[in-house]
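Key idea: predict the complex, not the pieces.
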Amino acid sequence: MRIALSVNGREVVAEVEPRTLLVTLLRERLALTGTHVGCDTGQCGACTVHLDGRAVKSCMVLAAQADGRHVTTVEGLADGDTLHPMQQAFREHHALQCGFCTPGMVMAALDLGAEASDVRDGLDGNLCRCTGYQGIVEAVMAARSRADAPV
Amino acid sequence: MHPFDYLRPRGLAEAIDAFRASPDARWLAGGQTLIPTLKLRLASPALLIDLRDVPGLGGIRVEADRVVIGAMATHAEVAASPELRPALPALATLAGGIGDRQVRNMGTLGGSIAACDPAADHPAALLALGAEIRTDRRALSADDFFLGMFETALEPDEVVTSVAVPRPRAAAYARIGNPASRYALAGVFVARFDGAVRVAVTGAAPAVFRADAIERALSADFSPAALDGIAIDPFGLNEDMHASAEYRAHLIGVLARRAVSETEI
Ligand code: FES
Ligand code: FES
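Result:
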């Protein structure tokens, strides 16, 4: 089937099998390998992207479900060489070690919204095997407290 | 996943015609239960019919004595709706505790009740609140809707369109989640109406059920202490690697007390 969607602001038309997962389309067809696959079972959150502005696990969404919609991946955040404030905060607060969970963490953190009082609760769909989470929580809180951060 | 065809019709009649014309079709709402099921090859339908573009299945409307929620409303929408929260805070809180943030952004209320997972949260709310489940062809009471494990009164080609949830005097939901799957090991929803208390339990048995003994005790005296003498019979409760039937029976009592002491409104 033919699908048409916007990925990081770029119009994409692709011929896919209906069973193609969104993460497969992103990684294998569009070469956007910033979105990671940690578990493929909906547990780890490494595959988190935004679908029409809301965080979803792209290993649990069909590419067909994204037809006609807007997808943002971690590659769509930076402005040229200038990191997004959330990415910058992760860098400053030692919020990553191996970095495998990081794209999903960043995309999930950007969907928390101002109303999410508890960052730890808000990120409970994302697992990190390295950091112990403290640096991640500090980075997200720092980015949220910055006036210029669109979170 | 086995291969399947995919269709996203723009009307309910068209959707139902397509369903009937296929030997083995499945409805797709948010897919947060169905897609993992397909990936595990526990189901291999020939056709998925995505209800996303069918008009009239979304939205949340608060009325004087009830709240009407479209079947395609996501858990995130139910949790965050500024109209729903003051009218039915216990339901908003329940929706905000389902799965994780990403799952709540995709998963829908209609999908959750139609899938009827034994540990899903929404069935407990709808059963305790005495909701009416509306489909393309009829209205069913929650008492008649949830039949068993993954089993509802829906015909295969029938589509849930909305639910109408009466507004109680007070209600609360208490659950203990499995930390890995996030599904409820047990969850108890307590709803207090004028003259009656309804209590529904999820996660503990093959299907959501009403806890009669707890309802009777709370109808006489709506306080945690009213449940002190009540023991839940573990016979027939779920027994698995996460919890024994006895433990689940114990949890029901604990969670019912907790819910009573936390009732909102
Ligand atoms: S890869 Fe999608 S949740 Fe782990
Ligand atoms: S930094 Fe290694 S998994 Fe999070």
